[in-house]
TrEMBL record:
Protein name as it appears in the record: ABC transporter ATP-binding protein
Residue ranges of every copy of the ABC transmembrane type-1 domain listed in the record: 21-298
Taxonomic path: Bacteria, Bacillati, Bacillota, Clostridia, Eubacteriales
Bilayer topology: Multi-pass membrane protein
GO molecular function: ABC-type oligopeptide transporter activity; ATP binding; ATP hydrolysis activity
Keyword Transport belongs to the record: yes
One Pfam family per UniProt: ABC_membrane
Subcellular location: Cell membrane
Gene Ontology CC: one annotated term: plasma membrane
Keywords: ATP-binding, Cell membrane, Membrane, Nucleotide-binding, Transmembrane, Transmembrane helix, Transport
Keyword Nucleotide-binding applies: yes
Residue stretches making up the ABC transporter domain: 332-568
Length: 575
């Protein structure tokens, strides 16, 4: 785990390496200062040697300034190293997520991945920053101050033998109990992020159904769950500080008592007692800082595990060792295909699917809700892998293709239309980043989007806002169709993508498709019979099986499901 995370330091390694050495300078100065002070008191002030006192005072000032410079410099380099580490780690995580199949993402959930990319990385960043600042400084201070204290008075230093075991045992017990609590806390953060994500993405639905109070209550419950989980974890960790303070002040009181008696008895000089107290304080403060570092690592250990879980996740879709880099045509074959989202053959969504679609054909797909229409077409660009059988595109098994090559030749307009922040032009260029304005406008005309784009004051440069909030559902669908057309793919899949437009617009789009997509295999999933009545053939799906696959004319005569849908819609149109 550490090796994988450390690799993300990358080009900021020089800052990470420099920080401990700079902090070492501060630690050495902190160790030297009490010794200088003791000499100044014993050999300068008490001896009434003003020149020696001034020299030692100036030396203390110089050491203090050097320590200040080292402390500030170490803080700056640590910040550079930690923020750079976090940047690289987030980039690595995001790149890894891009390789995931839908089933990989389903395993983590979107909200959990967001938490891992934000909160978990921040926790790890904070632990890393504290580690590189204190990993050298605190041990050096601890060992150096302890050695100096022993040199000054070995008998008085025996107090450490009582204090250090108490601190070590306390720290071990707190660490062992805190880690699982912080893991549970991060799971509550996942649930909180999920609540926020759902509410913001569906804000129009929330307002339309006047469910603000319900969503507010749900969010408060999630936030309260985080609070309680955090309190449960933190109330154990915060015990570390009072235990450390108790030991430190108890140790200082013991030193003052026994050391003071030695001074009164004339066996111990007051300057040395003063420096001994400083070294005791430094020793215990170093122990406290080390315990804080360990506590921070303990807190972030849960986050580190969650991050590494993502980095270790193996994408379900494996690339072929020698992938095919060209899709010959848009022909599609399904040979005894079985599919399940769970990956188990006892819970199949699609069962024994057999299809043969020629390149350039227009195929309609109809079926009831839950008949797996969308699932069927998502297997063509290999968004999921199948449990049994074989799918071929262009005569080649989809597993043999380079995934990027295959998906570049299969354009999909999904049931849920997604547009991104930016202009209309920016969104359309997702289909072809090198598309000219002429090509863009041609695709917009084919998708019946040209007219409403021209009505906007800035045309193609109109800003759509987040998720395309500035356009209607039908306009969004047509922009997504235009975006798909710009790919000039060998296969285009329209998953109920004209449901938000009227029948006249739907007819114009289909007519444009016949003209613009000559030679392109077109698959149209639709609820309206009119959307598929011009298709070469229509697939009728029923509970994950193909009930029929024939021309619309023959299906009207031979298939009960197709005929029933046709008659119901015709009857509705007449009424």
């Amino acid at each position: 785990m550490i090796k994988k995370l450390a690799a993300c330091v990358g080009e900021y390694k020089k800052f990470a390496i420099a920080t401990p050495f700079i902090m070492l300078g501060e630690a050495v100065m902190d160790i030297v200062l009490p010794l200088i002070m003791a000499n100044m008191i014993d050999y300068g002030i008490q001896a009434k040697d003003m020149g020696y006192t001034i020299r030692m005072g100036l030396l203390m000032i110089l050491c203090t300034l050097f320590a200040l410079i080292c402390g500030a410099g170490g803080g700056i380099t640590a910040a550079h190293a930690a923020t750079g580490f976090a940047k690289n780690l987030r980039a690595k995580l995001f790149k890894k997520v891009q390789t995931f199949s839908f089933s990989n993402i389903d395993r983590f959930s979107t909200a959990s991945l967001v938490t891992r990319l934000t909160t978990d990385v921040t926790n790890t960043q904070n632990a890393f920053q504290m580690l590189i600042r204190m990993a050298v400084r605190s041990p050096v201070m601890l060992i150096g101050a302890a050695i100096m204290a022993i040199r000054i008075n070995p008998e008085l230093s025996a107090i450490f033998l009582v204090v250090i075991p108490i601190l070590g045992i306390s720290l071990f017990l707190i660490m062992s109990k805190a880690h699982p609590r912080f893991e549970a806390m991060m799971e509550k953060y996942d649930a909180l992020n999920n609540s926020v994500q759902e509410n913001l993405s569906a804000i129009r639905v929330v307002k339309a159904f006047v469910r603000e109070d319900y969503e507010d209550k749900k969010f408060k419950n999630s936030a309260d769950n985080v609070r309680r989980a955090q309190l449960f974890a933190e109330k154990l960790v915060i015990l570390n500080s009072p235990i450390m303070q108790l030991c430190m002040y108890g140790c200082i009181l013991a030193v003052l008592w026994f050391g003071g008696n030695m001074v009164i008895g004339g066996t111990f000089e007051i300057g040395k007692l003063s420096s001994f107290i400083s070294y005791v304080t430094q020793t215990l403060m170093s122990l406290m800082m080390l315990s804080m570092v360990i506590m921070m690592i303990t807190v972030s250990l849960a986050s580190m595990h969650r991050i590494v879980e993502v980095l270790d996740e193996e994408p379900d879709l494996k690339e072929d060792a020698d992938p095919v880099m060209e899709v010959k045509d848009g022909s599609i074959e399904f040979n005894h295909v079985d599919f399940s989202y769970s990956g188990k053959t006892d819970n199949l969504i699609l069962k024994d699917i057999n299809l043969s679609i020629k390149s350039g054909e227009t195929i309609g797909v109809i079926g009831g809700t839950g008949s797996a229409k969308s699932t069927l077409v998502q297997l063509i660009p290999r968004l999921y892998d199948i449990e049994g059988g074989e799918i071929k595109v262009g005569g080649v098994n989809v597993r043999k293709y380079d995934t990027e090559v295959l998906r570049n030749q299969v354009a999909m307009v999904l049931q849920k239309n997604v547009l991104f922040s930016g202009t209309i032009r920016d969104n359309l260029k997702w289909g072809n980043e090198n598309a000219t304005d002429e090509e863009i406008l041609k695709a917009c005309k084919a998708a019946d989007a040209y007219e409403f784009i021209e009505s906007f004051p800035y045309g193609l440069d109109t800003d759509l806002g987040q998720g395309g909030v500035n356009v209607s559902g039908g306009q969004k669908q047509r922009l997504c169709i235009a975006r798909a057309l710009l790919k000039r793919p060998k296969i285009i899949i329209l998953d109920d993508s004209t449901s938000a437009v009227d029948t006249a617009t739907d007819a114009r789009i289909r007519a444009a498709f016949r003209k613009e997509l000559d030679g392109t295999t077109t698959i149209i999933i639709a609820q309206r019979i009119t959307s598929v009545q011009d298709a070469d053939k229509v697939i009728v799906l029923d509970e994950g099986r193909i009930d029929a696959f024939d021309t619309p004319e023959n299906l009207l005569k031979t298939n009960a499901i197709y005929r029933e849908v046709y008659e119901q819609q015709q009857k509705g149109a007449q009424e």
